[in-house]
Amino acid sequence: MNCIEAAEFASALCDGEIIPPAAAEHIGTCPVCQALLREYLGLGAELRRTASLEQPAPVPARVWTRPRNPLTAFLQKGWGTMRIPRLGFAAMIAGIVVLASTLAVVKVGAHSTGTVVLLNTVGPNGPLMDCPLSTQDTKQACDWYGKMGSQNLAYRVRLLSRDGSRVLLAIRTRTYTKGENLSSFTFDADPAEAVKEVWFEPGEPLKLDVPDVGALSLTGEWMDHMPILMGSHGQDISPGPGEIRIASPLLLKDKTLAGDLVSVVSGVFSMDNQDRAMWIYVPGQGSFLLSLSPMKGAVEAHVTFSRISFEEGGHSWEFVTGAPVCRGDYIWVLHQPDFKVNAMGHNGDEPFVKTQLLVQTASGEWVPTGRQ
Amino acid sequence: MLDDRELGKKISAGDARAFDVWYRETAPRLSVFLRHLLGNPQAAEDVMQDTFTQVWRCSQGFDPDRGTLRAWLYGIARKQAAEYWRRYKAADPLEIENAAPGGAEASSIMADLLRRLPADQRTLLWLREVEGQSYAELAAILDIPIGTVRSRLFAAREALRAIWHSAPQGVPNELH
After folding, report:
1. Which of B32, B104, B110 sits opposite A46 (nearest CB)?
2. Which of A90, A112, B81, B133 could bridge B127 with an S-S bond, Cβ 3.0-4.6 Å?
3. pLDDT tens profile B95-123
4. What's the complex ipTM?
């Protein structure tokens, strides 16, 4: 071992460490390493002497407090001051847990004791409709008309009867080839159309094959009430993108009631086609077309949640509805005060809410066609 | 006199009286150490107080199986000092060399020479030579393997020796 190798062990010796025999032997006989060892020891002593010269400053008195967790403090205090037997208290807590669990089980089991089946239908292109059907009013029906691929589809569901946890559904479907006017069709006008009766158990999916369209998928659940808002899939109270919703609308003209359409739309009327406008007819006030697309001759109306306000013909108008109308702050309203509904075979004394087809001009404006 | 384990238990349990006794015993020496580490008496006082505050708040974090209470305290103090340097952007302690020293420091050649060492070496030498911390305690304080302590101490001693010998004229370079 040489002095360079032994130097680190000389340092270790200062610290009272045991070093290898070879290093100890070298340091014991080498005057250079012994001098280094003395130097290290001297530096250490000088350091301690320096520290000893320091007058430690008096430390300020402090109060040591720790923020306590309020819940922990409450529990600790409650446990410490408890006046009933602690075993009894623990048994009570256990009882509450068991009771709550039992109630939860009962609640889960209660789903089959409802009187309304919320039926969801999904087609090959996505959701068709949510349909609440009551077991106590078998005259109700849910209809859906629309394009399904290259076909037009008309779809109606009714609930005929109930047997325990399952229901008997009457399902009618009809497809139309492209070009046929689907809007003129109603099942009521075609009673001879075949009815398919199927048993359906909420919770169990059901597949229904429709020729030329594909499979419709039905799922459902029991509910204990008829839902109020049934405008869109999933019952989200927020309108979807491009969607217009009208629920039990009232029309105010110069702050005075000019039309009440609750008898026409007792629930929610919804549409989300850009090439269609919401078409509201109010006897004595004319026709109102509502669209998110700019229509020729229309005015821009301000939308505030469930109110549509606009100025037109020297009057202030406001539709007040029971649900948010659309996502945006503005909507286009085309008022046609002299629109004659008699020409389309409709009684002019009865209000209606429908949709009307729009066509887009080369300039980008949308023009109503008068067709549903 | 309580041993580390008992004292640690009392402090962890929130025994303010036991902690205050320990604070009064330990704080003066910690304050001197921080004064030499930071070179600024006011900063040392602030860091010392912050260190005890943190120790009191996080006393459940003390594990007697991993080291002594004193090593834990000095480890936290070292981290608080590093945080002080980071906050005031004085990465090199020499930047604060000109800070006004205490009266005793001004008269100490060793204190001046010590300040010229890198902070890590100054810390290591002080804790070993003045505080008498063991290799195991130093390893815990500095977050380094125990085998590294010996080589770092050797390097620190060599650095101090070199500074001592290169001291300007008028500074004695012989130890008596």
Report:
1. B110
2. B133
3. 444 443 444 444 467 778 888 888 889 99
4. 0.80
